[in-house]
Specification:
The complex is a heterodimer. Chain A has helices at 4-24, 28-52, 57-87. By secondary structure, chain A is mainly α. In chain A, helix 1 (4-24) runs antiparallel to helix 2 and helix 2 runs antiparallel to helix 3 (57-87). Among the domains of chain B are: 1-86, NADH-ubiquinone/plastoquinone oxidoreductase chain 6, subunit NuoJ (Four Helix Bundle (Hemerythrin (Met), subunit A)), CATH 1.20.120; 133-167. Chain B is extended. The chains are: A mainly alpha, B mainly alpha.
Chain lengths: 100, 174
């Protein structure tokens, strides 16, 4: 039988992979993938703790988080399409006019 | 021997999820990356099933595999293929990313070990699972304002995405 710590370890591994992707990748869609992986690690933690306590609010927050992530992906992909139309490129290092 | 007393199903789902997350970031073709991400999301749904949360698992499959993955695949199809195949990451940056990943893993691992979290009496799943009717009850009573705001946020994001993607340079026929 698996324990809470096993799920937390998987969640830590997923967060690390997501941070690696955010740091290394310059492709905007791949950065969105990394954000999705981090959000899923957070959801996994919420549901695992909700199962362990047991407390229903963890699952409710996980559901809210999934819905918000869907909204974020819709807006993020809209922004990527606009950036592609402007720059003909989805490499974030090429979006020069956004530099401060 | 607590660490070796895990369920083989859990190990399989973990390998699937972590492996497909790595493939999603590292594969050359973005469309395969999107498919790998969808498989990773299925893996997360598998974790939710292992945690006796079938409602959240079905929601995860419906939203992530059904909507988000399809949305990403359509965006990949809309973006010119040449832009997707160019990989311009330098080796130093990649090395730094791997070091940062290992530092985060080691840091969180050390915190988990020091916190006494791996004590088997603490994080067990002996209590009965949560009935999904309780989720519905919470959502429609205490969290009902949050649910309404969430619905408005989703509607707003869909309108915003449509407004962002609208082309203004094309003349509309009168």
């Amino acid at each position: 039988m698996s324990q809470l710590i096993d799920f937390v370890i998987v969640s830590v591994v997923l967060v690390s992979i997501g941070v690696y992707g955010l740091v290394v990748k310059r492709n905007a869609i791949r950065m969105l993938f990394s954000i999705e992986i981090i959000i899923n690690a957070a959801n996994l933690n919420l549901v695992a703790f909700s199962r362990s306590l047991p407390n229903v609010q963890g699952q409710v927050f996980a559901l809210f988080s999934i819905a918000i992530a869907a909204a974020e992906v819709a807006v993020g992909l809209g922004l990527i399409i606009i950036a592609y139309r402007l720059y003909k490129e989805i490499d974030v290092a090429e979006f020069k006019s956004m530099r401060g | 021997m607590v660490m070796f007393d895990v369920d083989p199903l859990f190990v399989g789902v973990s390998v699937l999820t972590v492996g497909s997350s790595i493939v999603a970031l590292e594969t050359k073709e973005l469309i395969y990356g999107a498919i790998a991400l969808a498989i990773g999301m299925m893996g997360i749904a598998g974790f939710f099933l292992l945690l006796d949360a079938p409602f959240v698992a079905m929601f995860q499959i419906a939203v992530y595999v059904g909507a988000v993955a399809v949305l990403i695949i359509f965006t990949v199809m809309l973006v010119r293929t040449q832009a997707l195949f160019t990989t311009k990451e330098d080796k130093g940056r990649k090395g730094a990313g791997i070091v940062l990943m290992l530092v985060i893993m080691a840091g969180f691992g050390a915190i988990l070990l020091v916190s006494g979290f791996n004590n088997p009496s603490y994080g067990n799943f002996n209590s009965p699972g949560i009935d999904f009717t309780a989720i519905g009850k919470e959502m429609l009573t205490y969290y009902s304002p949050a649910l309404v705001v969430l619905g408005l946020t989703l509607a707003g994001s869909v309108v915003a995405a449509l407004a962002l993607a609208r082309r203004e340079d094309i003349e509309q026929p009168q």
